[in-house]
Structures are given as structure tokens and as C-alpha cells.
Design a protein that fits this description.
Blueprint (H helix, E strand, L loop, with lengths): L25 E8 L6 H10 L13 E8 L2 E9 L6 H18 L2 E7 L3 H5 L1 H11 L7 E6 L11 H11 L2 E4 L6 H26 L10 H15 L1
EC number: 3.6.5.2
Pfam family, one: Ras
Family: Belongs to the small GTPase superfamily. Ras family.
Length: 233
Amino acid sequence: MRLSAIMSQNCLLAPIQEGPSEYLVKDVKLAVLGTTSVGKSAMIVRYLTKRFIGDYEPNTGNLYSRLVHVEGDQIFLQIQDTPGCTEVQEDIAQMFDSLSRCLKWADGFILVYSITDYHSYQAIRPLYQHIRKIRPDSKSPVLIVGNKGDLSHSRQVAANDGLQLANELGSVFLEISASDNYQGVCDVFQHLCKEVTKLHNGEKRRSSIIPRPKSPNMQDLKRRFKQALSYKV
């Protein structure tokens, strides 16, 4: 399925440590995954600062935190930028080991590939499968993103390929350009925030349901009372 969003900031966001948020309505933790140079960091910085700064790919696994508003809800959003691998065949197993802790931490996941790099597209399926392996009982939403849509002249992955893969995995697909389309980047993060908050709200409703105690059986109570009297006599 396709997705057809809203912040402004004038300075480059610096990674900050996770902090307390008692006064906030909701907490959302997202992880952005993919191979090297697909634009993961550029997407995050673009969303949180509304600025594009080129192929920003420090590959340091930074944690970004910021207050955002999604459909009237105030959210303390944390985004984990994960390091990628350079060659799918050689490095993806090692990348899985380093990602396991992050996968247990996050509430939702963004899997990013570049439309100009077929190898990055090939990494999406094993990444998705690894998420479900680490979180077998989780319903955490996963969104698949084809980035660098502005480089269609160098395209190696058709949009239909991304859509078909998302349908097979039961995920949502969106093709964007972090450099040319700020609204598309917003759609990615805000859609996932909404899905995570809906999931949390559903879990809270289920946990708030307390089973009603059974009504006492009056005949049984009378019988026990008569027995107690007979014992005293």
C-alpha cells in the first residue's frame, strides 16, 4: 500500500541523551535501518531540522531526541540512526549482531534502501526477517522506504519492486527523496508515529480490563454456614 506531517528548526540537530518525560503524552522510539549510503541519517536530519545537508551519512549510530506533534498529540520522539554495512553478502550477518539490542529497544522500524543501489534493496527482506526473529511476538509496525527518488536517471530498483516487496512482507511502502521532498520525509516518520501510538493505546486498553469477580453462590454459603453451626453443636 502507498502513503500519499510538521516541524521547523533553523539549526542542525545534535544527538542528545535519552531523558525523563513525565509531562509528555506519549513516548515513541523508532529505529532506521539499511545498508551504507542509502540516506538514513539525511532522512532523520531532514525531518527534525527541515534542512537538507547533502549525503549526510556519518554512520555513527546516533540517537536523536525531539519533541514533535502528530495529529494534536505531543510526542517525545527518539530515533536511533543505525550503522549500515557496505556489502550485503559479507557484512550483513555482522550488522545483525550489532542491531539486536536496538531491535529490542525500538517500537517501530523504518527500512531504507536507495533506488540507485539494488544491493541495498536486497538487504530489506533479511532485515525485516531479522526484526521478526528478534521480536517474534511483537506487532511493531515496519515501513519500507525507497530513498533518492530524485535520481531516477540512475534508478536500479523500480517503484513496483518496492511496493511488491512491502505487500509480501505485510508492510507499508513509500518512495521519497530526502533532498527534494520534505513532505515525503514527514509522511514516513509521522505515519510510523501514528501506528506506534495506536498500538500502545490498544495495549493500554487491554491491560486496563480487569476480570469481574464471580458472584458468590448463595446456596453454597448457606450450606457452609449450616455445617459450621453443626460443628459447634
